[in-house]
Each structure stands twice: as structure tokens, then as C-alpha cells.
UniProtKB/TrEMBL annotation:
PROSITE patterns: RRNA_A_DIMETH, SAM_RNA_A_N6_MT
Chief site of localization: cytoplasm
GO molecular-function terms, A-Z: 16S rRNA (adenine(1518)-N(6)/adenine(1519)-N(6))-dimethyltransferase activity; RNA binding
The reaction(s) this protein catalyses: adenosine(1518)/adenosine(1519) in 16S rRNA + 4 S-adenosyl-L-methionine = N(6)-dimethyladenosine(1518)/N(6)-dimethyladenosine(1519) in 16S rRNA + 4 S-adenosyl-L-homocysteine + 4 H(+)
Gene name of the encoded protein: rsmA
Enzyme Commission number(s) of this protein: 2.1.1.182
Enzyme class: transferase
Protein name: Ribosomal RNA small subunit methyltransferase A
A Pfam family recorded for this sequence: RrnaAD
Gene3D superfamilies according to UniProt: Ribosomal RNA adenine dimethylase-like, domain 2, Vaccinia Virus protein VP39
Amino acid sequence: MMKDIATPSRTKDILARHRFSFKKSLGQNFLIDPNILQRITETAGLTKETGVIEIGPGIGALTEHLARSAGKVVAFEIDQRLLPILDETLAPYNNVKVINEDVLKADVKTVVEQEFAEFDRLMVVANLPYYVTTPIIMKLLEDKIPVNGFVVMLQKEVGDRISAEPSSKEYGSLSIAVQYYTEASIAFIVPKTVFMPPPNVDSAIIKLDVRDKPAVSVEDEDFFFTVTRTSFAQRRKTILNNLVNGLPDGKEKKEHITSALEEAGIEPSRRGETLSLAEFASLSKTLLKKGIGK
Ligand code: SAM
């Protein structure tokens, strides 16, 4: 069998032969350690019955490992210069399809319907481009792409925020947005040395298990997310002040907001970062009841 793409020598050889130069603006940090790739595919629990969506295959380092373990891989790559390289490196695998599109603009739902109809289990597995990690994850969750889970590499700092518990300094509207749809945990931390070129920040693999239904039930999702974002607008301020200053009709309705907080059993002097998802859900319910957000 040929040497893995993700070895320093083979990666260097591929890049040199194709005269490829990294584009920092596209978050191009390629993996050069087969052990890390092995751990990523193990964490994703891949079998031949699993379909995989990859974002940003690069020169195919992770794609190759996914193709070996999963039934089928569809990879979105924005950089056209990588297409001839992927044609060459992935030639031994007949279960991979590369789509030359910006994943943020792509119609992923239709791709899933067309490409994965016969798969019962679908995972997103990727070493994400760091300049757009949050928009990519949020797009796939908000568009309700029917995936079972995500195993993705991202900046450790973003992984900490996504998986944070209430009352920690990392907890915020991103933790709530992701935990609303998934059970989130950090699988393992990754050293900078496994990338070419090494990124400036520490990295982590996070695991998101998509819930059958959201963690809490809310009447109006958009308003629930508005309330959570507004509650964290100024972290040092009380939840009451943030809501009064941040909700569109907050200032005129201060008394209603106070009573909505009380009705939800939330002391108005608390800070947003102490509220659980369940508390934010009941707060958005009592706010709506008082005519706020309608
Ligand atoms: N998977 C490869 C690896 O692990 O070695 C490369 C990962 S690299 C961190 C991120 C990849 O995402 C690059 O190949 C980059 O060109 C691609 N990319 C960046 N922005 C993208 C976007 N909006 N849509 C699709 N691919 C993107």
C-alpha cells in the first residue's frame, strides 16, 4: 500500500510537484500525522454503513482515512487549485466525491438527499478552516441537515466555548446555540506540530452528538436566540440591564421584563452567564407572554 498522504515526506512531495502555495486566507493548515487522523476516524465511529460529509479536504489527508473506514465521502473544497491534486491523491478510492464549492453557499441539504439516500447514519468529519468554524457549524445545525453528529478540528478556544457549562468564563451564546441542538464535548487536544504549516493557535477535536429533539422546547427559536445573545451583550451587566438595553422595545418595557424574569424564577440581578438552557427557555416564554418580542 502507498504511504499515507498525511506523512511529512509525501505531503511535501505532492505540494512541490504541483507547485502548491498555501493560502492563509483560506485557513490552509494540512495534517501531516496519520496517528491523529486515525484517532479522528475512531472518534467518529465510522463503518461502511456511515456516510461522511467533509469540509475542506485540502490534499486529501483526512479524506483518505475517511474513505477507508466509511461507506462514502462527499467533500466540499473551495480552492479550485486543489482539484487536480485531489484527483491524483484520491484516485485509489472510488467512494469519494469532491464538490468545488464554498460550503457556506452550498445547498448541503440537496447534496445529502442526492448522495446519501441509502445511508442510515451520516457524520460531518473535518479539519475546519479556522476563519469560518462557527459559521460552518451554525449553518449545518440551523439548516437542520440530517446528520447524526460532528467530529471536527477547530481552535481549542472555540471548542472550549462550544462545550462550556453555565457559570464558566467560556459560557456564552455560542455554547447555548450549539448545545441547543447537540451534546457537545472536547474529544482531545491536538498539538501545533501535526500541521503544515503550524497554525498560530492551539487546536482541539470536538464531538457533537445531534439530539433527536432540541435540548429545551421553545415557542419561537429566533426569539430564544435573540434573548440569549442579548443577555450576554455585556457580560458584566445584570441580565435585566442587558435585556432592557438590548431588546428592541426593552426600555419602554422595563417593568414587564422584570416581571417576566421573576415569573421565570430568575433573580433580575443575576448575570446571563449563570443561566442554564432551561432557564433561558422559560425566560423567553415569560417574555413572550408579556408581549415582548412579538
Ligand atoms: N482536510 C485537510 C487536512 O486536514 O489536511 C485540509 C484542512 S485545512 C485546515 C481547511 C481546508 O478548507 C482547506 O483545504 C481550504 O481550502 C478549505 N476551505 C476554506 N474555506 C472553505 C469553504 N468556505 N468551503 C469549503 N472549503 C473551504
